[in-house]
Records
---
Amino acid sequence: MGASVPPADAPVLAIGGAVKRFGSRTALSGLDLRLGDGEVFALLGPNGAGKTTTINLILGFLKADAGTVRVCGIDAGADPVGARRHVAYIPEQVALYPGLSGVENLRYFTTLAGLDLSRNEAHALLAEAGLTLEAHRRKAGAYSKGMRQKVGIAVALARRARLLLLDEPTSGLDPSAAADFSATIRAAAGRGTAVLMATHDLYRVHEMAGRVGVLSGGRIVEEIDPKTLDHVALERLYIDRLPESTA
Amino acid sequence: MKRIGAELALFLHDVRLRWIGAVLVLLLAVAGLGAWRDAVRYGAEVDAVTAAERARWLGQDAKNPHSADHFGIWVFKPSSPLAVLDPGSEPYTGRMVRVEAHVFNDAVYRAVQDAGPLARAGLGSVADIVGLVVPLAAILLGFSAFAADRERGTLRLALGNGIAPGRLFADRFAALTAALVLVIGLPLLGIGTLVALGRDAAGWQDTAGWQAWPRLLAWIAAQLAYAALFLLVAMLVSLRARTARHALAAALAIWVGLCIVAPRLATAAVETLVPAVSYREVRARIDAEMRPHRTAEANDDRSREILARYGVSQPQELPIDLRGLMMVENDDHHFALYDREFGAFFDGIAGRERVFAWAGLLSPRIALQALSQTLAGTDFAEHAHFVWTAEAYRRSISERMNTEIRDRPQHGGTTLVAGPELWGEIPPFAHTPLPLTRALADAAVPALVLALWLAGLVGLCVPLVRRLKP
Amino acid sequence: MSAARFPRLLAAELRLILRERLTWAILVALVASLCFAAWTGADRVAAARTALAAAVADSERAVRDAKAAHLRYGRPAAIKVNYWQDPTDAFGYRTYFMAAYAVKPPTPLAILAAGQSDVQPAVTKVDFGFSTVFDDTATEIGSAAALRLGPFDLAFVLIVLVPLAIIALAGTRLSSEHDSGILRMIAAQPTGPRRVAGAKFAAAALVAVTATLGGTSLALVLSGGLGDFAGWSWTAALLAAALAAYVVFWVAACALAASLWRGAVGALAGLVLAWACLTVALPTALGLAVDVLSPIPSRIAAIDASRQAQARFYAGDEARRVTAAWLSTKLPEDVRRPELADVPELKRLARDAHYDQALADHHRAARAQALAASAWSRRLALISPATALTLALETASGTDAGRHAVFLTEAVAYRRSLRAFFEPRILAQAVTPAPVCAGCPARLDFDAYDAVPAFAPADARAAADRQAFLTLACLGAAALLLTALAARRLKQWPA
């Protein structure tokens, strides 16, 4: 398992010239992206722009046809398990075992990651992720999307991953849950976790992200510092960058 | 009608239907044609040996009639034409009987005995395929009827746009039933027609009395009702299931329960609840009762009783032959014993078979088995009918031979010798199957049970369709 | 952070599977089925023992009756005892009174499988009559409906229901996670699909093996139907191992189905179809193959041959000629007399020998076919895991077709030994009819009732061990093959 030890100076995420084709369709056509500790990067783009492909490459579910994808210096294509050791991923729909409680789900997923959480540690992590205490022991089958996401965050917290991957994290959340979520992510970033989120939610992007990349045609066509624009201007700019057909 | 046509057109394009149809037609054709070939071969052999036996009987040398009675004759069970579709109890019962003096011989050589041990695996006949595979096909066709639409959201769309759920259900059921008729009814009708026509054309074994056509049509109707029943099961499950996966899992579980587990449970339950005397015990009882009758002392007592009855002291003074009369009376004793013991035994088995028809309430497969074999003329009643017909034939020979001896007293130590005229007096063995009306009467219970299943499922449909949720 | 250790992963999966209510519902149903099946099996074995005991009692009764007849007829009396009424004569006793049985006693493991016992009775009376042509006419007429549906025995539960229970338990593992999206959460953890699938299916296998073996043992103990185990523990151990391999085979099949990533519907449908193919369709096809490889000689042709021989024997003076010819092979020339050919007892012996000769080819063909069919069945059964295990269980139960074929051959040999015992005595009596008691009504020339050979059933254990071992080897190989195939496919998570 020596391959999984990251070079000390490697960036958390380094994608260089990544190309991914599915038959005749090109999903990514030379994507470049670097992310350092504590950075929050929002990947903006319409459906089919390559957001999910990017995430799949980072997780090692897919291998790039050309270019490199490195997580903490580890090639995700060659050693996906090693790369994933530094990544926590929260999909758009966090799916949990409906028959298990929040605590049990958390302990199960962390066991897969090689951790051995005590019950108390699990409770503390869920509380830290914002799940109210009475929900910890309830079956996850009755959880709302926001509650399930909090369990997902608790898994990420438990794993102390250096990179947090978020796929449409706020879609379908009510405003207060979304605000909670933003706060939790900002706190994680504050502790040095790099965050890559793929989203449509310009409001949350403006609120959370330090950097925004507009993904179109399989590569980042523009990188923006959201602090320099208000979110109406951000929206205008985003729409302008989209290809005609999707705008 | 147009909507049903549209649904049917949709199904006909479904690759699932084509696969299921192809597999079913293949299975039915292999089983049906294999059985047909065996039936033709058996029929031809039986015809040949029956003619040879008759010739041997008529061609006997002049001899004492009792020797001819011992020489006897073999008789063979004519197979129902529909045995090709549903052999029923035929493989489990003997097909040939040696008819001879004194003994109620068993019908021997059950096909199941000759078949290899693997042949009982379950798909040996067309009826087995209908009983086991057709429900599976109906489930695979029907499980997604509503659940898949619900999962895709198209059910929401349909109901939201004012399509009446009852209509939707009825149309889909009608279309799927039509599809099933296509992949099950037509192959069955094809094989059945081949059997009925081929048998008439080949001329082997008398088909008269079987009334093959009405039997065939009723039989196919029963199989289709059974298929429709499982289609209803699948669609009902589909009405309730959240996803197609749940629907399939639940429908398969029901199939396993009804077609695999329940039948064997029913076997165990019936055997426990309706205890039957074993055949071995019956035979032992008959032997035990015959033993004291057969001793020299009993024989002497009987001959003395006859002499006393006629008021004479010597056999030669009798107006009849003592040995002949004793044989007549001896046989009468045996006949009464056989009637009592075997009569009760066969009645017991028939009673068990009737209970099995009611056990159809546990599983439609059991009801179909009972109904199908009764309609096909291959049920146990038909076998018992053959056994008793053969026994009646045996008795008619023994009686004729014995009375010949009795009525021609021989004196001075000579033995009566009879010739071809006497042998010719015995008609060839003729077996007429039970009339169709009897089969229909016997089929009433299993048909009722199957109808109850259908009615129950339709009854379940109504509230479920009414409360259909998208 | 280190990779998850497998035992911990396995423990987590075990917790997961044992937390599901469905698991417990399946296990309870399985154990209940096993107990019920063992109970019906115990009943069947008890009935077989009763039949055996009845045969023994009948044999003893026949000897008792004959000895009583010796006393009864041992003084002068006025009655006439014909040869068919006389148990004190060798021919009379052998032909009309003796109750000699060939029996196939249940093995200590007979409770496991009904096998062919419902169509091939284990007790057959050795008969010197000639109405049946063949020796395998013993029949136990019963409900044909029950025979068609089959018994609810342990073999049925273990071979047919256990795979279904496994499919219900493990058939949608991984694929239902795939459908619900949980798989994405699992895949995002730093662990490969082989480890996760390995833990998931190993947990399912542990639960299923424990439930199957434990449930079967419990059922056997509760039913009390196991016989005296002495010498059979090795067979039982081999069978338990084969059963475990069968369970692992089905769990591996579930893993393979999951590795195709076709979703739970696809996995379930595929597994149930595979189950139907392996337990129903393939055995049927193998049965057809056995029929083709060892075609059944026509019973009707044999009947025809027997009747031709019979007709020939009774035509003209043939009976006398055949008897004289037979006597010339049995008696030295100096004791032969022409009138011996008219002695009814000798005529009868000669006639039976004549029939036997006429039918020898048919009997040989039938026996060869029975042995060939059972040999082919043994070989072909190994192709399907279900038939392989069925045969192993039936052989251990002593209810397989192979043992029956051997039993019939032994029964024929037994009949021959009885004939060899009686024939010299009958001949000697006919050649020099020495009256034992003047004025007594019976012949009183035979009293060696206790010296009549008894049937010695062959040992069924060697065949049972061999079959169990072969089955274990085949099932083990099949389970390994499926596991390897599944592992090969589970190299990568689906994207």
---
Amino acid sequence: MKKFYFVSALLIIASMILAACGGGAAPATEAPATEAPATEAPATEAPATEAPADVISVGQVTDLGGIDDKSFNQGAWQGVENAVADFGVEGKYLESTQQSDYAKNIQQFVDEDTDLIITVGFLFGVDTAVAAKANPDTSFAIVDYSYPDCFGTDFTEGQTCGSASEIPNVLGLTFATDQAGFLAGYAAAASTQTGKVATFGGINIPPVTIFMKGFEAGVNYYNAQKGTTVEVLGWDTAANDGSFTGNFESLDDGRSFAESFVQEGADVIMPVAGPVGLGSAAYCQETASCWIIGVDVDWTVSAAEYTDVILTSVLKNVNVAVYDATASMVDGSFAGGVYVGTLENGGVGLADVAGASDELKAELEAVRQGIIDGTISVE
Amino acid sequence: MSEKASKEKKEQTEKQKEQSSLRQALLVPVLAVLSGLILGGVVMALSGSNPFQAYAALFAGSFGSPSVIIAGMQTYFATGDNNALVRSLYPFTESLVTATPYIFTGLAVAIGFRAGLFNIGAEGQVFIGALCSAFIGYSIKGLPMIIHLPLALLAGAAGGAFWGMIPGYLKARFGAHEVVNTIMMNWIAFRLSDWLLKGPMQASNFRPVTPNVQASAELPRFFEDPLRFNLGFFLALLFAYLVYWFLFKTTLGFEIRSVGANPDAAKYAGMSIVKNIVLVMSLAGALAGLGGGAQVLGVDHWVGQGFSSGYGFDAIAIALLGKSHPFGVVLAALLFGFLRSGATNMQSMAGIPVDIISIIQGLVIVFVAAPAIIRWLYRIKSIKVEETVLTRGWGK
């Protein structure tokens, strides 16, 4: 028994010492947590049992990808962190590891009286609507989704879809990616050597094809301005149809689509199909025969190994949208409805174009201004 | 000494032996859990968090905050309004909801262990069961609940049973090791569900999820939203008892345990190894499939790709911790349910990643799998207890 006491005493002492040492290392964003022990809180908040009532609290619930998914979850959290730094709001996140966590994590934040709850992605569509209707005093923002989302007649609110009407305390964060796609089309047309550029999508659904429509419009605008005849493969707005892999996973499809486009003479390709595009990028890198335009995030960062074949990226700046939503909470102007990220508010954008001449940069800036002030239509 | 006295004495020692063996059986798991929690606390401290604060948050997250519950009771007795009281039970009921699939899958692995089979395929069986239950749940309309709900559950069990039967048959007929085949069946299940969710079973919009099941196929919930506590939990307890009864009170159960304990002896006693292996794997699959079905019909109401994050894999740990006994499995599943469920609050209140729970679970399993460590740590005299043979090597 002696040894038993010895070992357990050792374990307990060790854990106490370590606990005492480890106190100060908590991430800055979590410092004002209501239950933080006095040692962790700034001196001015010494009692630390009650955070000041006027501090806005923001809670983000991630999808299965987790907080560091190099995509929307991470982008949204970056927006929260920026808001924490600029406004002193309190920011927290909860990671979902499985489907049944969605509702549970939202409820956790509701129970903590979180002021703004941010959910990420369409899989939260129903749970966010249900929670928002049950808690009308809490504000919600949902990334890449908006209400109403019930269409037709055969639906049940809160089950098959979220809501048939706008919800006053939910802000849907959506993105006018056709504006950024337009710029990408312009840049692609200016960069092509063969006079042909291409795009393909995962599935023929609006969130995908809006990129491709903007892309085609941008190429056409370039042709009209410069008197060129750059051709777009893989998408035709008039027919509302184009090339689709039918999935968002197969890197092999990305490779074979790129191969066939190159054989048809294209040398710039914009894949709008998530990781499928990485297969295309790998093909371009191996054969040195084409450029890739990334989508959603800056691929020179998220897929840095293909940097040498990435022409540019069409950016959906989730961080800007989340930051703006939080800012509206802080100044009290938050209202439900739909936020549209545009070139003007920085919600969408185009990453730096590789090897762009000063002339092209100036032209892109002019087009960007034209879209913002409405003199150029992206339709 | 009369024969009667010696018989009495024998009975008495038997009883004593039983009691001491029960204590022995409980001792190692309990100490393992304790050590796991302590070491988990050390890990938290090392990573710069306060373990006491974390465990307080974990407790409040899994059982509920005592002050809130008392306040709820006071409101109830004062005004008769039970809203606050019911609401204060949310964390506790949520833990039971989380434990429900663990009970089913834990039983699925435990029953395999009893027959000397290592069923790593519970995860795939859960997915198949969930998809089958969902399909019956949403595709058939207009049935009364008394028919629809059992039918949907049965579909889940049947799907899981089929998925478990295949590796069982391959083992019994060709000697193909069930560990390899159940793992392969998992991957087939994952890819099959990917395809189904984006093809034949996809809801009408572009999301890769199934439609919602009909209300008549939902397991009834006992409270209003957001409490998700439903009949599934009691169903799980019922099946735990049924598995206990089957294993220890029926001839077939005895045969299965004999095959697990000594297949050669069982064979020469005239028991069919082939029949028993196929039977056990089918039953295991059916239990896991029911777990998936109960989760869909009781909690989620639809299936997406993120349906499960490892009910079937955690089940191996649960079966080990529960010593492959149905009641032990229930206790272990409850522990896992409370840990997993409380972790949400811990993550939010103490800023500790939910992954710490996986670390604690891992530590517990190490201690359970290697009881010598626990015996050495706590200086427990090694009393020779009957060790269950978990699984056998290649071949028969």
